[in-house]
Amino acid sequence: MSNNVIDAKLLSxxxxxxxxxxxxxxxxxxxxxxxxxPDGDTGTNMTMTIMSAAKEVSNLGDNxxxxxxxxxISSGSLRGARGNSGVILSQLLRGFTKVVKEHNELNVEILxxxxxxxxxxxxKAVMKPKEGTILTVAKGASEKAHELAAEGTDDIEYFCSEVxxxxxxxxxxxPDMLPVLKQAGVVDSGGQGLMQVxxxxxxxxxxxxxxxxxxxxxxxxxxxxxxxxxxxxxxDIKFGYCTEFIVLLSKPLNIKQEIDFKSFLESIGDSIVxxxxxxxxxxxxxxxxxxxxxxxxxxxxxxxxxxxDNMRMEHREKLFHENSDGSWAEIKTEINGAxxxxxxxxxxxxxxxxxxxxxxxxxxxxPQMPHKEVGFVTVCAGEGLAEIFxxxxxxxxxxxxxxxNPSTADIMDAVDKVNADTVIVLPNNKNIILxxxxxxxxxxxxxxxxxxxxxxxxxxxxxxxxxxxxxxxVSLDDNxxxxxxxxxxxxxxxxxYAVRDTVIDDVQIKQGDYxxxxxxxxxxxxSEIADVTFNMLDKMMNDDLELISVYYGGDVDEKEADDxxxxxxxxxxxCDVELQYGGQPIYYYIVSAx
Length: 594
What we know:
By secondary structure, this protein is α+β, with helices and mostly antiparallel strands.
């Protein structure tokens, strides 16, 4: 193949190489986050986003055409998008593939057009684009690509190297565009993540030796306990049946159907691989009831190449062979005839469906929610906070927040579980709003008639206040307006610890210091949690505020929290001071004043 074109096989290799390079650098990218808090997760979010797509591309094999690869990249990254950086990355990939999918071979002119479309798509996804970020780096790469194409360059190797060189120069200038980056002495972490994707892809183009295998751990951390090579007890095998099959689709799945199918599989098992094109859908899932997966698949077409293995039985056999004192008779008795429950189905076999298999005497029945016009989904971390939201009428709580940004697919899955015509989503974190907005857009394109409205709460207290302002007898539009307006009345502060030395807003911060972070930045720093929290609140207060709410985390003793409440009440007698157990990780206290 000439070095002046890229075919489908090479594009696949380049994309996987870019994804693997980002994965290898994710912790370094995490450390570039400006605030030295233990939730710097840009690298993690971008990695989980691109690895969702890489898994789908990897499962296509070597003979996939350009359209199939582009579909896998676009839909995979969209479903896996997490955090602002992940959503923006997914939009860059989506825009790029919109152009690329129309061609069997790519040259400089096509690549330049794809870069332009990538940037256009990503900027449209962000309500208030900010320069000095991943968007700026992407725009720089696009501008250089356009310039080289206009000059008549046709050597792709030269084209790629020059684009990367210029994008690196733009990245180096991001601290000049965002003072907070300059003060912290770092470049933009999202922009650096994008550069690692581009550099890895270029290595793939040059033919460098790269391990392109995509493991389950890359896409679902901790999904496979047995991958470590350590002896695993049977109790670790949560789902006993390894189920694989191909669906011969009666018609192509749309994005919503793919998400629904994958979400269903996630609800009944783990170790899920699901890849679809216009004609077939390949499924792999570990579950305790293979029949459920098979029944659901039959909604989309006929089944072929079916295989079901009992992993518990295989594990017992392995233990028997490894244990010289083992008694096969005892093991066979313990299995209780499980060997007869491990069929391998072939195309054309009759499949018995509908029998519920109960393992470990545990069968969980999920009650159907009553239908309602408006439902609520919210995001938070901490059992206390989750209970508070449920008490305010939330139908489904997604466990997440700092360090655990739910993906677009996670939000769609939660919305699907709510039996309502309209679902209001409260992200409660500024890094989750884009993923929630993306879910709302996808809901508009689906055919289930369900509407998603995002009330852009940036903190847990904002989410609580928004819910309190919902009035059932008022129209939906008026309620959304009232809830959104209520967000502006809440001042929020959060107390955590510093994971490294830095300087922010001229404040010297040492590793291990406690920090009080408000809506506008660092408000207090010190060595005592209670003092830092009290001083943070003091800077949040004004004469118009009437209510102070204190949510204490899982690492805070109740008496310490009550002492802090008394101290606050004494200082601010004009305010009602509420103390509630939040149970949240990472943040010792979340405090609101309104």
